[in-house]
Amino acid sequence: MRKVRFLFTILIIIGVFWFFYGEKLKESGFQAAFSELKSDVTSLKNSPEVSSGIEKLKDGMGNLVGMVNGKLHSTSNEEQPDVNPVTKPPLATPKQAFSIHNIELGDSKTDVENQVGAPKRSSLNEYGVDWHAYHENYQNFFMVAYDEQGKVAGLYTNQDLISSKQGLKLGTAKDTVLSQLGNPLTKIQKGFVFYQMDNDEYHTFHIDHSYVTVFYDKHEDNTVTALQIISDKLEAKKKDFFGNPSSELKEGFEYQLFDLTNASRVNHHLGVLSWNDAIRETARHHSTDMAVHNYFNHTDLEGKSPFDRMAADAITFKMAGENLAAGQQSSIFAHEGLMNSLGHRENKLRPEYQELGVGVDFNSESRPYFTENYVME
């Protein structure tokens, strides 16, 4: 590894030297070219503009070398992700419009868990019930919400577990979805307020006494990338557009966003990330700061970057990145939106990253702020 870094640095130095002094070298030889280089350095070294430029160049070179080191370090992670393949269940045509992992609304929790085992995590969602996450090292990942009778009232997946009467599934084109399901909802009523639903990244349909939201991947030719199904009764429990803020919902959104990210990484043949509590605290503090002071920026009001904040909290890293989202009604909508934003998507799917901490908080109007901090140690 050290030899590779050394050779990489030497090649850059040679390339820069040849760009500026190649002609002199060809005309008059090495000694003349070196003399010209020495003269240039002597005349420029006291220039403040040059000094500033050199510092910026050093910073840029450091970042570039860090990225190359990360790529070299992570090659095995990218080519050999730390997951063993798990067989996808054969998907049957459902009785309802849609099923996920052959599970439909109204199925019992007992039947679900006889089929797939116990959940890997249960965490509160915006509907006031838990999302129960089922998967095998984030393969065959889906989430289920149950009502008071232990019946399935909500379903979600971002993996190839979708089946429908119309033949719609993961990877189906948006135009095909619309031709099969018709016009999507343009608004939803909560109390005396109508909330507009005008977003080309997803469509919500009212089908079989349920709200079916189909998410599309802009970077995969606007094809189906995820599906959420919420029963009428469960949707009616949520009186406002946002859920009721609480410490439990804050933590629920954080863990859900972490799980959704890992499920997406597995979809792209990448290793899963580890949860980091210390990074979560840094991320949560930034979400709180944005919520309290009503701003939305990677740079906080004290001028600190994400890297400054992590360093101040004694978090060490070779590479790091941050994703922000705000105003989405849940971790699911936040995640799907981030996956459709190229820079945020690149953070979620960067092979070099090893750990993730997610921090969430709410402003006085219950609007959630999401911060994801990624690191490679």
UniProtKB/TrEMBL annotation:
UniProt GO BP: proteolysis
Every SCP domain range: 259-374
GO molecular function, one term: peptidase activity
Keyword Hydrolase among record annotations: yes
Top-level division of the source organism's lineage: Bacteria
Keywords: Hydrolase, Protease
Limits of the CAP-associated domain: 105-241
Keyword Transcription carried by entry: no
InterPro entries according to UniProt: CAP_assoc, CAP_dom, CAP_sf
Protein known as: Serine protease
